[in-house]
Amino acid sequence: MMKLKISAITLMSVLISGAAYAEELTVEGSGITRDIACSSNDIGIYGAKNIIKLTGKCDDIVIHGTNHQVTFEEADDVSVSGSDNKVTGGRVKDLSVDVANHEVTATLRSNDNDRAELEVSGAQNVVNVTLESATKIEVGGVGHKINWSVASGVKDPAISIYGADHEVKKAN
């Protein structure tokens, strides 16, 4: 009987650790149009001019390259880098926008006691966010436009700005 319990525990440990290291679902190339249903997995979008629609809840989404158009419903973390990407999303806890000329729209919401975070660096990015929980916004680099609004009952974010020529304002 003891051997069976140890085997079951060992099997559960292997299954759990395997799930923690699941591979990223990758879209890589140019001009790909694809709808993807997330089920708590990581998504990587690389290359150029891909049009990707993500439905459901994703874990981490990485968007790297140029001229992608990506929509998502919900994610733990979204990271946008490269240039000229347009990302429109639902809810995300942590959002990172880097390099240049991106247009990103999302709702920031933490699911726990931590704050949601928006981090913008590089140059000339436009980010529009609605805040549904306590949020930290950090803006660096040059020439970003950050428009933020808060849901009813949510405090204004903690904002750190460095670099030059940023426009960071509360939307009416």
Beta-strand residue fraction: over 45%
Q: Give the strand tally.
A: 13
Number of domain units: 1
Would you identify the regions where 5 or more consecutive residues have pLDDT less than 50? Answer: 1-20
Sketch the major β-sheet.
13 strands, parallel
**What is the arithmetic mean of pLDDT?**
89
Number of helices: 1
* Approximate helicity band: 10-25%
- Rg (CA only): 19 Å
Q: In one word, what is the shape?
A: globular
Distance between the termini: 66 Å
- Classification by helices and strands: mainly beta
Order of helices and strands: HEEEEEEEEEEEEE
Pfam families: DUF3060
Organism: Pseudochrobactrum saccharolyticum
Keywords: Signal
InterPro entries: DUF3060
Provide the fold topology.
Blueprint (H helix, E strand, L loop, with lengths): L1 H19 L4 E6 L2 E7 L3 E6 L2 E16 L2 E15 L2 E12 L5 E6 L7 E5 L5 E6 L3 E5 L5 E6 L7 E4 L5 E4 L2
Parallel strand pairs: 1-3, 2-4, 3-4, 4-5, 5-6, 6-7, 6-8, 7-9, 8-10, 9-11, 10-12, 11-13
Structural overview:
It comes from Pseudochrobactrum saccharolyticum. InterPro entries: DUF3060. The chain is mostly beta strands and 172 residues long. The chain has one domain (25-170). Helix content is 11%, strand content 57%. The chain has one helix at residues 2-20, and strands at residues 25-30, 33-39, 43-48, 51-66, 69-83, 86-97, 103-108, 116-120, 126-131, 135-139, 145-150, 158-161, 167-170. Strands 1, 2, 3, 4, 5, 6, 7, 8, 9, 10, 11, 12 and 13 form a 13-stranded parallel beta sheet that branches. The longest helix is centred in the first third of the chain and has 19 residues, at 2-20. The protein is globular. The protein starts with a helix and ends with a strand.
